[in-house]
Specification:
This protein is an alpha/beta fold. The protein has a single domain, classed as LmbE-like (Rossmann fold). The protein is built from nine helices and eleven strands. It is globular. It starts with 5 loop residues before the first strand and ends in a 6-residue tail after the last strand. This is GlcNAc-PI de-N-acetylase. Keywords: Zinc.
């Protein structure tokens, strides 16, 4: 069976490679249509240029940008609202237009926590994507955004509780640092109970592509963000850190003869 078309929606340039680079490369290698929408940063900025290189490495064509500003970097989209401050209806409308143009069978995005760090842009991108994935299939919503298209399933990129200890062994507490208040920060990682994970994907065969896409975000490497941390790891540690991806599936359409698209394992029909 042919691999299904896939649209990945993430908050910032580099999230697509870190969270779902293996699945994107895997589906592209199988001949599926793949595409990436990034919620923040604008065309002409350095990170948008790096995103374009990373997306091409993953076989996902040219990047698509919603054009909102990063919550912490206002110059990321001059003249635009921060993603978290923009009217929700406008953010959903912009994403619906991309979903209807790409017409993917599955959509991939952040989980409800926004991944391990709980970044507010990640959390809000999750909310916008969940709404847009449903709205795209309703013809009377956003009629100017194109003909209605309903993706079959939504996959949330996540981490199970059992994986966090191993990740800490590789990179230490830095992977889970987040600001709690202006006064202090504590190490904490957002993860889900293992039983909530519905797809565990071995992306080892596409690890070189995934790593190259991560390192294409050179400004993030230079400032010591996650791509920079990965750049400094030996190959064995990179493999341990990056060769598995975890997802939570939510069905959006009836699944007669369903298949778990990210793993190619057979799935029962809902309610069966």
């Amino acid at each position: 069976m042919a691999a299904p078309s896939l649209l990945a929606v993430f908050a910032h340039p580099d999230d697509e490679s870190l969270a779902a680079g293996g699945v994107l490369a895997r589906h592209a290698a199988a001949g599926a249509r793949t595409a990436v929408v990034t919620a923040t940063w604008a065309e002409g900025t350095r990170r948008a240029e790096e995103l374009a290189e990373a997306v091409r490495i993953l076989g996902a064509g040219e990047p698509r940008l919603l054009g909102f500003a990063d919550a912490r970097v206002p110059e990321s989209a001059p003249g635009e609202a921060r993603l978290c401050d923009a009217p929700l209806d406008e953010a959903v409308r912009r994403l619906v237009a991309h979903i209807r143009e790409v017409r993917p069978e599955i959509v991939v995005t952040h989980d409800a926590y926004g991944g391990l760090t709980g970044h507010p842009d990640h959390v809000h991108t999750h909310r916008v994507t969940v709404l847009a994935a449903r709205a795209a299939g309703l013809e009377q919503l956003y009629p100017q955004a194109g003909a209605a298209w309903q993706p079959r399933a939504l996959y949330l990129a996540t981490h199970p509780h059992s994986a966090v200890a191993a990740l800490r062994e590789v990179v230490g507490g830095r992977i889970a640092e987040r600001s709690v208040t202006a006064a202090h920060s504590v190490p904490e990682a957002y993860s889900v109970p293992d039983e909530q994970v519905t797809a565990t994907v071995d992306v080892g065969p596409w690890l070189d592509q995934k790593t190259a896409a991560i390192l294409a975000h050179r400004s993030e490497v230079a400032r010591g963000a996650a791509p920079g941390l990965i750049a400094g790891l030996p190959p064995t540690a990179r493999e341990r850190l990056l060769s598995t991806e975890w997802y939570i599936r939510h069905d959006l359409a009836p699944a007669a003869g369903a298949q778990c698209e990210l793993t190619a394992d057979p799935c029962p029909v809902i309610g069966g």
